[in-house]
Amino acid sequence: MNRFVHLICAFICLTFxxxxxxxxxxxxxxxxxxxxxxxxxxxxxxxxxxxxNADLWDSLSCFKHLKTLRLAVDCNxxxxxxxxxxxxxxxLYLVDLDRFPFWIGALPNLKTLDVQYTxxxxxxxxxxxxxxxxxxxxxxxxxLRDLKVISKLENLRVLNLQRCDLPRLPGxxxxxxxxxxxxxxxxxxxxxxxxxxxxxxxxxLKIADSELSxxxxxxxxxxxxxxxxxxxxxxRVLNNRITALGQxxxxxxxxxxxxxxxxxxxxxxxxxxxNASSNGLSTVPNSIDQLSHLERxxxxxxxxxxxxxxxxxxxxxxxLNLASNKLTSLPESIGDLENLxxxxxxxxxxxxxxxxxxxxxxxxxxxxNENQIKGLPQCIGTWVAxxxxxxxxxxxxxxxxxxxxxxxxxxxxxSSNAIGxxxxxxxxxxxxxxxxxxxNSIATLPEGFGTFxxxxxxxxxxxxxxxxxVGFGNMPQLKELSLAHNQxxxxxxxxxxxxxxxxxxxRGNLLVDVEEIMGLTNLVTLRLDRNNLETLPPAISxxxxxxxxxxxxxxxxxxxxxxxxxxxxxxxxxxxNRFNLFPPxxxxxxxxxxxxxxxxxxxxxESLSDLISLHVxxxxxxxxxxxxxxxxxxxxxxxxxxxxxxIDQLEQRRLRELYPRVVRF
Length: 665
Description:
665 residues, mainly beta, 29 strands
């Protein structure tokens, strides 16, 4: 039991909102006495106070072995602390500090000082007394200007100055001979002082999101460097001496202005991560094949037109990003990257894939979006580990039968090609979760298509489909289905089996009846625009979750009264139909947006004011001569579009006075 109590007391968080009354202070003392009988064993404490109470700080004297203290208090309160009670303190965290307390240099055992987001403008000279300080976090201290005292902290190993405004570093920063980690991200640093290259023990250097324009030869002196992050600067040249960093494993020079990287980049034999994306590179050095430990290579968004033939020697490579370049072909050696799991080649000028690419049997993700590929190799069935395949915006006319062997494929996008026929083998992809076949020339679907048990999203819009196969609705997990802009004239029976469907897009077809849709009781969005609908079925009331319904550009002239049961419907679009009368059922609903433009409505009812939640009302291009005064009762109305009606100038003037900044004529 004693051991259990000891473990509980090893860490305690005290959150006090303490009024100045003595009775409340006594209550705190009593709590300490009653709840912490083993307070000598408390080593860590978080203390948050919102009102000044000097007596509270005296109570800290009972925690004799306190090693970690986190304080979020007013600066005036900090002055009340007696530093003698903090002599064993090793870690101090101060939140929302306006200035440093006078006793900050009187903590002989302090190893960690975290004062991030301080508003202080100067680091006090007393900091130099912290001879054992190893970690100093000043991130977010945008007001700090004088950092000279930092150079006196001879045992400092970690220094975080992220988001400080420091275009120039102290000239004596090289005195930090023990420094291993330095974060200068988002500081605006423009150059590094000569003494900087004396930091012989530095392992991690981050100078991202700044204004660094060059590195001098001194960079080669940082022989212990393991991580160098220079992304988002204005570097135009990467000093060749960088290749002397024999311990370097992580190098990020992305989003600079580099036109090349050193030809002897291969000398960085321990490098496992190289990111030079978003520059102006036109070539890749031949020596890159010597990076035998490279696991991730990011060269996207450059001007690279070709790859060296020896790329296949990067046998440890798992991720290769060459997106947004000018590649017209891939070397055969790409098939030798046997450990590659992710390959991104989108937005290049590839017209074909070499057969050797089929040897990448561990490939998990392949992105070929926005190329000019006319056909896929027949051997793609060897990509047995592939989960995501993006072929959008190419020039494919068909898919090989081998596609059916990709049993692990979850995401498949082949939209915006010229595919006329889908292979029956596609129906074997039972693991599919998202599939996009839109913007092709698909006239028919293979038998069994639409029976994917795990599919959640299916897009077949903008094809030439006239029918969908029997059994199409056997997709119990489907949430999103688009068959928009086809030539479908009839919805088959069984369509309503997709009980989880939330979005159905049937725009731009030849539908005259949508009764089969009414069983889709989880629908949230239903789009029926540009069909041949003369009416909506009374059973539409079953769609109780419906939030958005659009049925513009049909031949509707009335609405079923059962629509009043659509209590969740908020956006209704009925423009470009044949309404002569304002549908009475609409005034019983809780609509936020109502679009009735381009009909033949002659009058709006006074009961329109019952639409108290209406924000947008569009009634342009009707036969209206006036608007009811009751509209002024719709207090949330923000936009009323009444253009192109028969409203004369006098009435328009009156309405503008009633609805300033709302009505449009």
